[in-house]
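JOB MANIFEST
job_type = single_chain_structure
chain_count = 1
residues = 486
[input]
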Amino acid sequence: MDRNRDASEPAGLIDLLGDWSSAEGPLYRRLTEALVRAVRSGDLRTGDLLPSERRLADALSVSRATVVAAYDALRGSGLAETRRGSGTRVSGGTAAHRVPADGRVRGGQATAVIQRLVAQPPNLISLGQAAEAGGPDLAEALLHLVREDLPGLLTDAGYHPAGLPALRAAIAAHHTAHGLPTEPEEVVVTTGATQAVTLSTRLLLGRGSTAVVESPGWPGCLDVLRAAGSRLVGVGLDSDGIRIDGLAAALAEHRPALLYVMPTYHNPTGTLMSAGRRRRVAELAAEHGVTVLEDSAHAAALAPGQAPPPIAANPAGATVLTVGSLAKAVWGGLRIGWIRAPRDTVDRLARLKALDDLGSPVLDQALAARLLPALPALAPERDRILRERLATMTRLLAERLPDWRWREPHGGSVLWIRLPPGTDARIYAQVALRHGAEVIPGATMDPTGAHDHYIRVPHSFAPETSAELADRLTAAWASLPRGGAR
């Protein structure tokens, strides 16, 4: 069992409780309600052993009295029982049951992140999102679209499962300019990069299959693979990307159905996979007959030559699906992504896309078709802004939290920060929530325990938001029990 999903361990129970501490009311009542939800949903099952009051209090950074009161309330509801010498367990007499599908992924790591995205708690600065506001170029393109393209678009039926032809052609030209010759028929348009990953995993993975992934990795994407019924095998990274020795061993031992990587500005480390490493990944994939899903959501923001060509451009003979998106390059609210793949694969993906939604919104696609060719010219200004915001964030953190350490990322919009030795980032995340900051701890991005003392901090905020975030992170750090008691 994944150690983070064992309810008898504080870390496992915390994952099941989700975003409990930002609810309303006294802490003990918030904790009680979260425990009851976990039982009612079946995440906590009859007979499950709960952590001791003291261990859970330490992990949540609350008083032992808070946990004692919550356990008392749980017992009073008939949902738990305590026996001397055997601890507190979910009661056999409980009315716990499995509710209909609620968007949770069994064994997943991103439930709390997704729930906060859905609920959007007020006054919370989310470190789960590294998106920027839309700029004037977006507004200008939209005005031109309305004046020049809208009359023709309104005569169209509006159903394009593989994508609006003009956008497919623009995406093909974009990949060709970045070193990956592409025809429009090799592109299927999706509603964002997440749908692109979801459709790909639905096509390539099945229950009981294995996927090799980078470790750490972004939990939202990894949960998409888990939701397809796949078992994940993690391989570490170095300064050039996924480690070749670990990848070769994992492919030989596990014979996976899929290799999922982020070669351009990996999330959360910011690593840019080198050209040589991309070539070796393609060679190993071809040798072992495994399909590669390369998530290049950051690449659309780059000018040609800023990053090596995609893995799919290597002539090793591997089957590669390349995911792209405009969320990082233009605006997160423009939900346009795509998959570049062999033509027969595109046909199958388009059928899956049609089952989902019959095609992404036509007006959004037409706007994307206008914007995509202009992105290379916008890249220098975007880089300048990101560099300035990175400098602002690193200065604030260095001044206020001098014990934190990080390596400057090759690119992207996040910092991968190492907390002082002995600190458990999950405990700090619990405290930070109560100070209005959503911290994503390393344990959600690597369930092996290798990155429990890391957190992910976006640096793409406007300067005033970065200053407020630094204040909240500093206040949370000051109130954390020294050593971040494991």
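[summary]
The chain has three domains: 3-90, 136-376, 377-479.
The mean pLDDT is 90.
exit_status = 0
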